[in-house]
Amino acid sequence: MALLHLSEEQIKTWTRQQKDQWWYDNVYRGDMPQLTLRSGLMGFLLGGILSATALYIAAKTGISIGVGLISVILSFALFRLMHGAGIASDMTVLENNCTQSIATAAGYMNGALVTSLTAYMVMTGRILPWWQMLIWMVIISVLGVLVAFPMKRRFINDEQLPFPEGRASGVVLDSLYTGGAAAGMFKARLLAVTAVCTGIYQMLTGDGWMKLIQFKILRMDKWAGMKEPWTFHARLDDYYYEWATKAHLAIPRLLGTDIRQLGWHASLDLSLFGVGGLMGIMVSTSCLIGAVLNFAVLGPLMIQHGDIVDRIAADGHKVLISRAEVVNQWSLWWSVTAMVVGSLVGLLARPEIFTSAFKVFKRKNGDEAKSDVLGHIELPLKVSFVGVPIFAALGAWATHSFFGVPWLLCVVSLPLILVLTVICTNSMALTSWTPTGALAKITQFTVGAMDRSNPANNLFPAGMTSEIAANAANLLSDIKPGYMLGAKPRQQAIGHVIGIFSGALACIPLFFLLFLTPDHNGIRSTATIVSDKFAFPSVVQWVGVAQLISKGISHLPSTALISMAVAAVLAAAIEIIRIKTKGKLPLSAVSIGLGAVLPPDAVVAMWLGAFIFWIMGRKHSQAGTKGNDIWVEGCEPICAGLIAGAALIGIGDALLGVLLE
Fold it and tell me: Exposure pattern of 209-248 as b/e (b: 16+ CB <10 Å)?
């Protein structure tokens, strides 16, 4: 059936009490099961898997992938299959919505692991204990829930703001349970087939899987005398270099620099094809421009100029010029400038985000003082009024005790939480975009101006405020489909907390496994976090801003200062033109800056993925055709399959590598 909703006139003229009464009478499904044992367990398990996948991709690309629609399709398909097999009854639409809410909460609560927490470890060389990471992340995520629910009544119940991403999940859920089941199962099959094929390919490229199959199962080291397992090279150009070395052929160079040192490879990473498909052609092309500009033009020029050189590490070893050295010694500064200026201009150019955001602080027609129609199903406001001060104090205590941030700086940053959350939530409500990167810099520079002595002093207050704002905004986007379908808000809040623990318990062990691999002596080091495989571009940006705050600009080469100035002007110009032309300029300053810190082979792979889907989408533009169903309607499931298949098998490969060692 068509989803019921108020008209524009009703939204403008009715009081919130009238809107709540209408929703309670016409939409609310009071007796329908929602947060059940099976929906909670399914959400917890899916959330752990999807949050691990999101962490893997964010570490590679700096891009946060949405998991809401993926979890909707997966949970629907799994229970439909179990129902068909007679194992379990089918899920209700509200159970499925609860599952996606839990899974989505798990998927985005790990933001600190690819921003502030990891930036601190990279800057200081100190590995944080897992339990400190767990406590701090859970505290700030729960604080995001507590901050969000008082705003829910204004943004969703009263203002009826769109929350496009959440609305999309609600529409998909409604269609699955009111006649779109066949389309849902088709998308689930697309996802599953793509994931299996991608997983098989990823297995062929993994040392751990091939060692398990060839040495532990087939015992080829015994009867065939193999010393090392055979694997397919994900970097296809490795085959050329092996042959070129034997044939004494020249290695391609850019302005005298070996292209391998600059990070140029022919890579076949299918997860990045999927990321590119989700990014779209505009964003991926902007990333490609940034990569070409940095690693084919500016990087080689600065190597020739002498501003990027081999260096001597702290342990006395010589570190040769590589892609990471190009970024760390020079291009970090202009790329971070482009990303920060571009995101701030994009934020400031949306005045409606600010003008409408602060309506949350106003009362309307005395409505708040009247009887609460939904008081028995909403999360009680007193829970937030009591919980926010308690968890804010706990957050300040953890930040001070674990990371050495002075109490004053912890407390000073707390008032920014409310302001940034309102801005972030309103942005999510209007655009499905949370400007956490730009908002974090507000706190970073504010606190950094007060104390420049310790990098943690600006990293963690900024991390705390931005993660709370992001959690609150994403929570309200999750609640939107529940509101559309008639769910109990109180149970969604509980589900969100379940998702927080699911994400934390899945991602923190995975972080140590993937990025803090012990050496042959069993010693872990932060030096293994940022690598060619995991570029951590968001971490690089946070580190760059923190270093700029603590050291100032006097230590930078003059060419880096010039590049920062030029990048700032061009980034502002690109964003202003793009806004003025309503998106007709197909460039993004933020994405250009991102492309300059990602490995070039990763950028090329993402662009190829976006290009394939763009071409096929244009070729099969007619709705209702099989090609359109696959390449347009099925774009997200296919991309999700590429990402999930590669990420999960890649994670398994890392685990096997540790166990077999």
Answer: bbbbbbbeeeebeeeeeeeebebebbbebeeebeeeeeee
| Tens-digit pLDDT profile for residues 517-550 | 777 777 888 888 888 778 887 787 788 777 777 7
Half-sphere exposure of 409 (CA within 13 A, CB side): 30
- Helical H runs in 206-280? 207-211, 220-223, 237-247, 270-279
Q: What is the pLDDT of residue 366?
A: 46
- Six token digits for residue 442: 């507000």
Which regions of the chain are under pLDDT 50? 1, 353, 357, 360-361, 363-369
Please report the DSSP string for 435-447 in residue order.
Answer: -HHHHHHHHHHHH
* CB contact at 8 A, 144 and 458: no
Q: Are 303 and 255 in contact (CB under 8 A)?
A: yes
| Token representation of residue 353 | 């985000």
Rounded distance between C-alpha atoms, residue 560 and residue 334, angstroms: 7
* Per-residue pLDDT tens digits for 177-191: 776 667 777 887 888
In the numeric block, the tokens 């953890």 are attached to: 398
**C-alpha span between 571 and 595 (Å, rounded):** 14
Distances (CA, A) of 618 to 526, 624, 628, 631: 45, 14, 9, 9
Q: What are phi and psi of 496, to 5 degrees?
A: -65, -40
